Automatic annotation (TrEMBL):
Cell compartments where the protein resides: Cell membrane
TM stretches of this protein: 39-61, 76-94, 106-129, 135-152, 164-184, 190-210, 231-249, 255-273, 293-318, 330-348, 360-378, 384-401, 427-447, 467-489
Region Disordered, annotated ranges: 1-31, 495-516
Native source species: Streptomyces avidinii
InterPro entries: MFS, MFS_dom, MFS_trans_sf, Tet-R_TetA/multi-R_MdtG-like
Pfam families documented for this protein: MFS_1 (PF07690)
Cross-referenced PROSITE patterns: MFS
Domain Major facilitator superfamily (MFS) profile: start-end pairs: 40-491
Name of the protein this chain belongs to: EmrB/QacA subfamily drug resistance transporter
Length: 516
């Protein structure tokens, strides 16, 4: 069955355009092949799955790596941090680079780098080499994350964009939780090197699918390499690295080093804004952030990701300490969320195509808010079912929101900015996850009135969980207010269509006008 639903018979004009595209590559490049939509989406979906899988699969191997390399936990945790930092700091820059040098060639390079780095990870004889290979793997993953959504506008008809976004969201929802479970099985059966070797055959398949079925790059790409904003990219990468480290180092304690890193991130952000204002071709155009749909999509995406991380932080402690579940049942209960997201993704995309992404974005947030409020009021006496049902509601709402929000943000972005906007969407999600792990974890500990959640009384953990989910509901309502405000203040005709040069319209005193 086609995941995007039934095809519509093409009109004569569409057939003529397709015939011309077959001769010219669809983008003016003579001799290039036409993209085959199902196989192209298969390649993009596998790229998303690989990058998401790499996020969680190494966690399960950290105890083994401490023994193999005779290292401390603080040292081996850089196997995970190097990957996450590479993605977070570089995802916007590589997205913009794809806009300039060609998304297809850069995606193929990213898949190749990810696959080769996986081999290097498995063959690493020392911990520092493993960490370096993981950073290279993270760079490849950043390319795949940034460019997969950007390709949707070039491979899928606009009326089916939501379905394609839902499919990619499903792959992301499956990949992240699949990492620890698959990693545990590989670790038990084949050793720690199998954690990385599993990526090699999948990477080769993704490369072949992308190489064969993705549309060729436009002919004008190569001439724009000089326009890449090196200074802005470096400043943004350093700023994001400082922020991510401030949120992740210290193992739950926010000390002097975290404060210094946070101040460095604030200074870096100020320098980045100043550099972008002076750049001839900035990495992030101001008009992109002034676009109400893009701005609201980024803000709400970060808030919602913060909330989703709260479910991962609170859930294991609530299930084990308050409900008294062992490790295996806890893992089974936590798998309900990703399963619901995987099942909901493609139908959510079809709903976005039918009813419009803005409406479905608001609906997804309303569903999430209802689920979070239910979690904040659920008494422990309702047992596992009292936790699982609201969790399923939150996750289903998240799947609807993510698909619709991505569709809305990417809908009218010009071809020469799809990569950077896709990178910004991924960045907002990653920053939300990083912030949620630190901030929502601190909220949970404070509300539980303890410094060690692992040994806290059951009643204290239950109280902390309810308060944390109440904060989560407030964050979702804030995201809902942002998106609703944008929907209400937009002109009836909506966002203007992109200009011929790929730029988008922006509001001015006299109404909408073209230009960045």
């Amino acid at each position: 069955m086609n995941p995007l639903g039934p095809r519509r018979p093409p009109s004569d004009s569409v057939k003529a355009t397709a015939d011309a595209g077959c001769r010219t590559g669809g983008d003016g490049s003579a001799g290039a092949h036409r993209p085959t939509v199902p196989w192209a989406l298969a390649g993009l979906s596998l790229s998303v799955l690989l990058s998401s899988l790499g996020t969680g699969i190494a966690h399960v191997g950290l105890p083994t790596l401490t023994q193999v390399f005779s290292a401390s936990f603080q040292q081996v945790q850089w196997v995970v941090l190097a990957y996450l930092l590479a993605i977070t700091t570089l995802v916007v820059g590589v997205g913009r680079l794809g806009d300039l040098v060609g998304r297809r060639r850069l995606l193929l390079a990213g898949i190749s780098l990810f696959t080769a780095a996986s081999v290097l990870c498995a063959a690493a004889p020392a911990l520092w080499l493993l960490i370096g290979a993981r950073a290279a793997q993270g760079l490849g993953a950043a390319v795949m994350m940034a460019l997969t959504m950007a390709f949707v506008g070039e491979t899928v008809p606009k009326e089916r964009t939501g379905s394609a976004m839902g499919l990619l969201g499903t792959m992301s929802a499956v990949g992240t939780p699949l990492g620890p479970s698959l990693g545990g099985a590989l670790l038990a059966g084949f050793g720690w090197r199998a954690l990385f070797l599993v990526n090699v055959p999948l990477g080769l398949i993704a490369f072949l699918l992308a190489h064969r079925h993705l549309p060729a790059d436009r002919q004008g790409f190569g001439a724009d390499r000089a326009r890449f904003d090196h200074v802005g990219t470096l400043l943004l990468a350093l700023t994001l690295a400082a922020y991510a480290l401030a949120m992740t180092l210290g193992r739950g304690r926010f000390g002097a080093l975290n404060t210094a890193l946070l101040l460095a991130a604030a200074c870096g952000a100020a320098l980045f804004v100043r550099a972008e204002a002076r750049a001839a071709t900035p990495l992030v155009q101001r008009a992109l952030l002034r676009d109400p749909v893009i701005g609201a999509g980024l803000v709400s995406g970060a808030l919602v990701s913060t909330v989703m991380m709260a479910t991962l932080v609170v859930g294991p402690f609530y299930l084990s300490r308050t409900l008294g579940l062992d490790e295996a049942p806890v893992g089974l209960v936590l798998s309900v969320g990703p399963l619901v997201a995987a099942v909901t993704g493609v139908p959510a995309g079809r709903l976005a195509d039918r009813f419009g992404p803005q409406r479905m974005t608001l609906l997804g947030l309303l569903v999430m808010a209802a689920g979070a409020l239910a979690l904040s009021m659920t008494p422990p006496s309702l047992g596992v079912l009292g936790y699982v049902l609201p969790l399923a509601v939150v996750t289903a709402g998240y799947a609807v929101f993510q698909t619709a929000n991505n569709t809305a943000v990417m809908a009218d972005v010009g071809p020469d900015r799809r990569g950077v906007v896709s990178g910004m969407l991924n960045l907002s999600r990653n920053l939300g996850l990083v912030t949620g792990a630190s901030v929502m974890g601190a909220v949970f500990a404070h509300a539980s009135a303890t410094t060690d959640i692992a040994s806290a009384p059951a009643a204290a953990v239950a109280t902390g969980a309810r308060f944390t989910f109440l904060v989560a509901a407030v964050l979702i309502l804030a995201a809902l207010a942002v998106c609703a405000a944008v929907t209400l203040v937009r002109r009836p005709e909506g966002r203007p269509a992109p200009a011929a040069d790929g730029t988008a319209g922006r509001p001015a005193k006299g109404g909408w006008r073209r230009g960045w």
